[in-house]
Amino acid sequence: MTSLQLWCYVVLLAVLVAPAVAETPATMQDSTVCAMRMMRCYGGRNERLPPIVLISSKDRRTLNVDIGSTSVTIEFDLLCSVAPAVYVRFMHCTANWEEEQNAFLNDATLRTTLVDWTLAPSRARYWSHRGSLQVPNDQVQFRFSGNWVAKVYDIGTDELLGETRFFVVEPLANSYMNFMTDFYDTKFKVSGFALTIENVVTDPSATLIDGFMHTSALYRNNRYHEPIVVSNQIDDGKNSSEIRTWIGGMAQGSKFFRAERIPSQNEYRVLDMTFVAQFPSTGQPVRLPLTDLRRNGNFMAYGDDGAMITSNISSVDDDYVPIEFLLDPQGPPSESDVFVLGSFNHFRPDPSWQMYYDEELRLYRVRNWVRRARHNYLYATGKLNIDDNSIADLSFEEWEGNSSAANQSFLAFTYYRMQDYGGYDGIIAVCTSSLSNTR
User: Fold this and answer.
1) What's this model's pTM, rounded to 2 decimal places?
2) Is 2.60.40 the CATH classification of the domain at 174-265+406-437?
């Protein structure tokens, strides 16, 4: 073969091969593109219940457990170009929500593909498929109590699409909460009313070791990214600066975990999107009819303890609607960044829910897609770190005020250092209560 013939052969081969090489990544990308729109977890089949799985305990008959279910429901909405192919993996975490590196706890086979799928309404633009599953199931069983994360991955690419938190409790002790009124120094001209919450843990079997019972975490119901940590092993630096904590030993078979000066905050605002005529699924932004105003404690009605309620939404109306939130500062804008937190984003602030100040309207504004439901929400201030999108100094005082009439319920989880399988943080007790329902 002459050099000219060889050159022509190479050019022809390149022409024949190039299209296949160029098109394959694009084709694969189009067939596997999936975007997570929302993911949530709740107890049993009741979206009002906290995501707590109770597993068997030898001492269960002697214990009083008033919260928890035999399973949790995990639900997530995706926008996919084709039928989604995903798997859900489950990861055990420490009491501080750090993933365990122990292979016994986080077995790579602890995953499931048993997902039930529902199609979005034909007019839906923001999502296409809803996956749901209940765990434990035939593929997934939980042998270890503690904090757990469910992660959804694309089967084809192993890309992480989204995650949600839940708790597994093995009851080995009793616990209850005492609520006491307290006060704290406010940053703004609002009520200084606060709560002192005491999680009291008792050991009826007298077999638990004091030093291994190391942490109590308090959560407002449906707000599982804002723990108030009382611990002798975990850094409580994420607590608000005004909160003080202390721990009392196993006096007379009981141990006390106390958090003092917890701001009572305010009752939730309600966004009820069940009226379709007011919130049509046209794809056009719906501006809330009235501008939200600063609150110093007054509110019109109670919310739903932070829950997202979709039970009254028909399948044909189950869609996402772009909502424009408006907040009137009634004066100069805040020196801090302003965010909307609610059941539509798990009360977890991020840059997509940051409001901007419109100089012309003299209002704070933000637009985002919200699933049709009855939602609870609040306005918060903080400082956005653009490097990692974290929010520092999160506070609700400036726009929401502080009210002794707020009736948000709390959950208290008690963590114990289990010695099996190299050691892990297990949850041995859980209880729930509120100021109006104290023991």
Assistant:
1) 0.90
2) yes
